[in-house]
Amino acid sequence: MSKQEKRLAREAMEKGKKKMEKVVPSHIGIIMDGNGRWAVRRNLPRIAGHKEGLKAVRRAVKSADRYGIRYLTLYSFSTENWKRPKEEVRFLFSLMEQRLRVEGENLHKNNVRVGFIGKRDVLPASLISTMKDIEKMTGKNTGLTLIFAINYGSRQEITDAVRKIVRSKAAEKDVNEKLIEKNLYTGGVPDPDLIIRTSGEKRLSNFLLWQAAYSELYFTPVLWPDFTEEEFLKAIRYYQKRKRKFGGIHSPSSLLGGEE
Fold first, then answer.
1. Is the pLDDT confidence value at 163 over 50?
2. CATH 3.40.640.10 is held by the domain 24-152+192-242
3. Active-site positions?
4. Which residues does residue 75 pair with via DSSP β-bridges, in sequence order?
């Protein structure tokens, strides 16, 4: 992209920001898909795609902060990702640890609070230590809450929530949606208003299944390493055009069709 093209793109985004409606998603979840395909299309090893994907993570965090998003949850490593080649899995964990240590200070300086969801006990000890350090360092920050889902699977999350409730010996009459939500990994975090998935796939892949009951879903063919601030803005624009009914209706005309 030439300097002039970059300038025009920046100007277009600035105009978009000025025109943006006040209503933005409070919580956005992103299924960051397409790193491997991005690399394969360029005849590069898959790890090159993961490295490039980190640049998209930085752009997404900056965009979320700029547009006033309160929570951003990134699907970083699923419980199903263990099926990948061992070398790739080891590289991913090493890359996560390295970048978290490097970026942690910057996130802290920018008042970002960092959290993690998923089962930690099987992760590398050094990665677990890094996660704890960053949580402690940023724990009192009041800006964007950035959540990394690492070794996360929603079915496992719901299973663990049920186990916690059983261990608490809660009475049957006390088991309700609020109690289950309280015991999820995301307890205390509002449900995502918008879930974005890149790379053209159209499924949730075990991501925030309980929490996504009424989330708006945005699917884009753009591969994750190519996901720019402009693409982030497109997703927000899509969300702003939706009429969220949460199972209800807005007007009599709504009875004649599906969601408007």
1. yes
2. no
3. 33, 81
4. 31, 149
